[in-house]
Amino acid sequence: MNFTLRPFSIILSFLLLICAFDASATHFRAGEITARRISATNLTYEITLTAYFDVTPAGIEAAKAAVSVDFYFGTDGPRKVDRLVSSIRDIGNNTTVNKYITTYTFRSAGQYQISVKMDNRNANTLNLNNGVQTNTINFYVHSTLEINANFGLNQTPVLLNPPIDIAAVGQRYIHNPNAFDADGDSLSYKMFVPQQSLTGNGVGTDIIYKDPNQVTPPGQTEAGVSPATFSINEVTGDLIWDAPATKGQYNVAFMVEEWRDGFLIGKIVRDMQILVEDARNDRPLVDPLPEICVEAGTLINQQVRATDKNGDKLTLTSTGGVYEASLISPALAKFNVAQQGSQGTVAGQFTWQTSCNHIRLEPYDVLFKVEDGARPDVNPSLFRKLVDMTTLSIRVVGPRPLGLKATAATDPAGTAYRLTWDAYRCQVAGARIVIYRRESCSDIPEDVCITGIPAGSGYEEIGRVAVNETTYLDNDNGNGLRPGVSYSYRLVVEFPRPGANAGEPGNLIGGGESVASDEFCLNLPMLMPVITNVTVDSTSETKGVITVKWTKPAASSGLPAQYRLFRAVGQTGTAFTQIATINTNLTPGAPDTIFVDRNLNTLVNPYNYKLEYWYTQGGQLVKLDDAETASSVRLEQNAAQPNQVGIKWAALVPWDNSNRTHRVYREDKTKPGTFNRIADVTVQGPQTFTFTDDGSDKYAADGTVNITIVKDSTYCYKVETVGSYNNSQIKPAVLYNFSQILCVSSSDTTKPCPPVLTLDPLNCDSLQAHPEAFCDSPTFTNHLSWTYPQSVGGKDCDPNVFAYKIYYARYEGDTPGLIATVTTPPSPLSTTYDHQGLTSFAGCYFVTAVNRFGSESAPSNLVCKDNCPMYVLPNVFTPNGDLKNDVFQPYECPAFVQSLEFKAFNRWGAQVFSTKDVNINWNGKTNSGKDLAAGQYYYEVTIYFESSKKVTTPTTIKGWVQLLR
């Protein structure tokens, strides 16, 4: 849902006047304002002020005297609203509550601040106004309401737990407002400075305020840790003071923020009083409760238990939107305490039959509060009722779709599958079934708290259908699927956010996803081979060897067949060159799925391989498909502490090398050429893995060879990766591949330094004088040159550079990829490179240096280059049909123009022609085809030129042209 937050269009003020008792009456403890839209056809809201008074004799009189309040709606003037009949209620702990409810229809959508002021606050509030004359400060709170057509019947959260509990010196105090949002919006919490209204026009001003924990030096927490703390949990709303040190009266405020789809759509401020007393009893404790996740339709049956070490009588209660018929549709939750008031221990049973109406993105928070009661052996005047509370967070998610199957289907596009499934249990209006697909079968975590498809699982969305549908044809959007591939499918149901009917009981669906369906995997015979090994057998500048292996596809009638193997330099290299052609009849046991690639520079370069499979059709070889590319394992030096050696390795392969144990080998210097396995490294990330060698041999099976790593000595390593396709059809199931051998030093002084790069500049003035140069050249070349420093930052650079690697990105901000390696130049090593075959000059480069051990430097400076904007227009054209100068267009050919918009105007400023054609090609007519009179016309061209920046700034050209006939 998209919407725009508008600036305040109206400031709506509530000015609550207490006129029936003396203006100096002071007994206001707490309050907040909530609002609820009650009409689907106009912007009518029900607005409620909840006000809390203390139960002193004067406080009771103050509450009774406040029989009405004045609401202000901009310039409409005051509207007197009576207190809700019989709203004065004693709610315990010396507190009564008044409610004032009115309705108001706003004229237009927008953002509105609703505020209220009451005289006055209580005297002797220690943390306001430095504790001086706080009874002269009025009480002011506000709420912010966003009215937007996209929200439908949106309403603010309601705060179901009143702020009436007593805090005890030295004991942990907790308050939670138990905020409930019937629309399922997300809530967050933060502290707010209590305010007063000095102007009377609905604007609040911060009161001089101290954190209540700082009024006197903070003591210890209840557990004896220093210092005491005071904070609010921004997610749960738990306001915790652990623990007050000084008896007295304090006021604090916090804000409840309402969010939808990442947008802040409302705020409520609760200003509340905390009374800290000396207590001769310890507070009770309620057992914490874990988060519950259930599929809609599950019956929740949760026991809640509380204890009191003093053996006090206990009262266990619960609040939450799940009990309120006005906030949630049936069935409502129930909370039953069998032995309310029992001593020492009390237990209650929470039950809730969830349904499809309860599905939403945000959890339901149910508050449980235990309060102790006086014992006969304690003087009632010394006893203070203390509380503890905990929140049960319940996520109600959509049930998983059931019965998913897939069968082959006839389709003009080619290979296709018809998916079917059982009718979905929760037929919620606006919900959609989302279909996901991936190649090969794959498990994902099974947990009701994990909804949707986890990131990184390899599944991609391929389609959506209405929630009442039970079938889908997958033909890859009319392109046809790859034949012979084992596809895996899953379903997820996405639920709508609140719409026009949100906020009404029975229409509480608040977004979210269902649990993913069980997988259905088409375990088809593999018609396309896949690469299984790219392992380095020998490390050398000129005699390096890599062995490549692949699987044999299922037998088919299209024989004989052929494998074609291609190689590119670099793990991400795409400049593939064919290196082998292998004919096959798919004979079992034939050595036709292996190729040994020789005479490579494996010391400096990783390599990327691609396999094509061709089969016979109608007597001709036809390519079936390309296998996914697979690179060799590249081992490099990594940062480490002195007297240690760090290494890292990566392989860009179609199989999974993560969540496996890789093997690290180190050369035994007493036996040159012999490598000893020194560690097994369990890896988790998908591509790059690391290990730090401290000299100890952590793998004893092949003998223990511990060493002391010495600065400036050289140590050689290789790594064997362990991976799998996780596909039972691909053998072997476990794939082993070696990296090249890397020899490095524990000292960073020998690491190559980054080169300093320059690019040949463009002479735009010269090129503009000869624009035909662009027309005659189909491609362009950037000339790179660099220097290699002797030292950087006072440290010598390794002088033995054996290669330079050139990286290129088309746009600034993109990650440059390797495009070339300068490895076999004449002596000395070349420090130039021509990047040829470009369609424009725009792009960014950096260069790295590689030493004799294959260790690569950090990148050089990044250098970007832009094109010369070339667009020249004539000042006359003659559209008279003689085929000479009949159209208005740029001279020569427009260079590097990405897009443009051309507009022509007559002498009176009226637009007569427009086009987005890069060559304009204006024939002297209007866009409707009417001939324009001869004369002078003015034009404006907005041009976007190709650039090294993804988002370019347009160039505007203004001029005139003479139209002659």
UniProtKB/TrEMBL annotation:
Alphabetized Pfam families for the sequence: CHU_C (PF13585)
InterPro entries from the UniProt entry: FN3_sf, Ig-like_fold, T9SS_type_B
UniProt keyword annotations, A-Z: Signal
Organism domain of life: Bacteria
Signal peptide range: 1-25
NCBIfam families found in the cross-reference section: Bac_Flav_CTERM (TIGR04131)
Full protein name: Gliding motility-associated C-terminal domain-containing protein
Organism annotation: Dyadobacter pollutisoli
